[in-house]
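Worked Example 4.2. Read the sequence first, then its structure tokens.
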Amino acid sequence: MALTPVDFDPFADAAAPALLPLTEPQAEVWAAVQMGDEASCAYNQCYSLQLRGPLSAELMESALR
């Protein structure tokens, strides 16, 4: 799937920018982004799971929600 860039700022019409406090995890991600690509890559993690036995799709969907 190809992504299409858009030139849209949802806050352009706002009278004043909204200043909201960041949670600690959000602040960590913001700081990593400010340090550059190598630092922010630390938040890209990949896990592989191998499940065994019968799977209930309903329970799996509920757990992921």
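Now turn to a second chain, presented in exactly the same format:
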Amino acid sequence: MKKTQIINPIKNFAPVFLMLMTMFFLGFGCNTSKPAPDPLAGWHFYSRTKVSRSITDDYQDYIQKLPPEVRYYAKGSLISFFVDGVGQHAVKIEIPLNGTYSEHVLIYDNNDKRIKVVVFSGGRYSS
């Protein structure tokens, strides 16, 4: 009488399992997030002297409403002005805080009314 051999399924499954786990960790474990797209891509620098009084008042009011620890650094920060091709304006406020530049972009419509605020990390610095 011939003996039937019992096949150990673990023996065949182990290499496949290890290969799948390796693919999972290499594929997903080291995934870095994409940087936020620049909300001012395609915009052009604009002279501070040409900025309307309503935009100036609004971005200064925006800074005053920031939390105290952020507002402290915002007062001496770099403020840039931009215009796009259809007459909209933007103000970018770069605030250095805890090793990271926090960038606040205020976007205004053709009537100088703020329509959008975008806040993102603009990079790192060391002191």
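Notes for the reader: Residues 44-124 form one domain. DSSP finds three helices and five strands in the chain.
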